[in-house]
Specification:
This protein is α/β, with parallel strands linked by helices. A hairpin with a 3-residue loop joins strand 2 and strand 3.
Length: 130
Amino acid sequence: MQLANLMLFVPDLAEARRFYGETLGLPLLAETADYLRLTLSERELVVFRCERPGTVGDYADEARAVIVFAVPSVAEALARFRAQGVPCLHAVPAEGPLGRYAAFVDPFGIVHEVQEPLPVLHPKSEQSSA
């Protein structure tokens, strides 16, 4: 099984185009009255129109899916988000088993994260003794 694309459901496609296209910088591929298609790495983020926004809830303790966006610097991404009025759930980058990250909320109550790339780990090469 392979990942085909990611889908979100939001009540305002114009606001989704602004947030995901302009604020996050995802290129718009197609748009209709019912959905947007944006480029997200090698896949697509498909945003469908729905009736109501979601709620942030208890972010880390409730079942949910989260899109994690790779950024060179989580601290810089947080500063840029704050300057653009994007709600951030972390005051400073957090450390976790997958690296430095921070959560933010889109205009519809959907929580996502930014994460710094993890360093590439290379297995220790065996040393041969002659």
